[in-house]
């Protein structure tokens, strides 16, 4: 976010600025005011994404959700933060992501899914989510609000179902 980071509220800066050295987890519970998906031709791709918790086809309003952020060093020694979101729409769906900062690319790389099958560059702004693709266009997105519960958690205490099944090294 560069200089835009300073524009964020101090609590938001804290939420986006913690690391594995802090031994903290941020667990938020709230409501997504809106979850949307792209045109009908994107739905098969979104359904396939549910197999590995990458994307999902549901849409709705006022959907309860939880977000779990844990900071840790991955198997390759990289500072990593989990972004595990659980949405409780018509069906419960998870969207798992593991973010690292790439010095080589000078950006955040978001490894998506249980096996980190997709690696995408993140363009951060202040702050709702839109997932787009140069070919497919708008895939899905959401906006909402939540309350955060800060928890003291050592790396060995991070729940196993939060961590990816494998670590991908693409930078």
Could you characterize what this model shows?
The chain has 171 residues and is mainly beta. It has one domain. 9% of the residues lie in helices and 46% in strands. It has 2 helices and 10 strands. Strands 1, 2, 3, 4, 5, 6, 7, 8, 9 and 10 form a 10-stranded antiparallel beta sheet that branches. A hairpin with a 3-residue loop joins strand 4 and strand 5. The protein is globular and about 45 Å long.
SS elements, strand count: 10
Report the major sheet. 10 strands, antiparallel
SSE series: HEHEEEEEEEEE
Summed over residues and divided by their number, the pLDDT gives a mean of: 89
Total discrete domains: 1
Give the count of helical stretches.
2
How helical, in percent, are the residues? under 10%
Question: N- to C-terminal separation?
Answer: 19 Å
**Which structural class best describes the helix and strand composition?**
mainly beta
Shape: globular
Alpha-carbon Rg, integer: 16 Å
Uncertain regions spanning at least 5 consecutive residues: none
Q: Could you tell me the strand content as a percent range?
A: over 45%
Architecture blueprint of SSEs:
Layout: H1 10-17, E1 24-37, H2 43-49, E2 60-73, E3 79-82, E4 84-88, E5 92-95, E6 97-102, E7 107-112, E8 118-122, E9 129-133, E10 137-152
Antiparallel strand pairs: 1-2, 1-10, 2-3, 2-4, 3-6, 4-5, 6-7, 7-8, 9-10
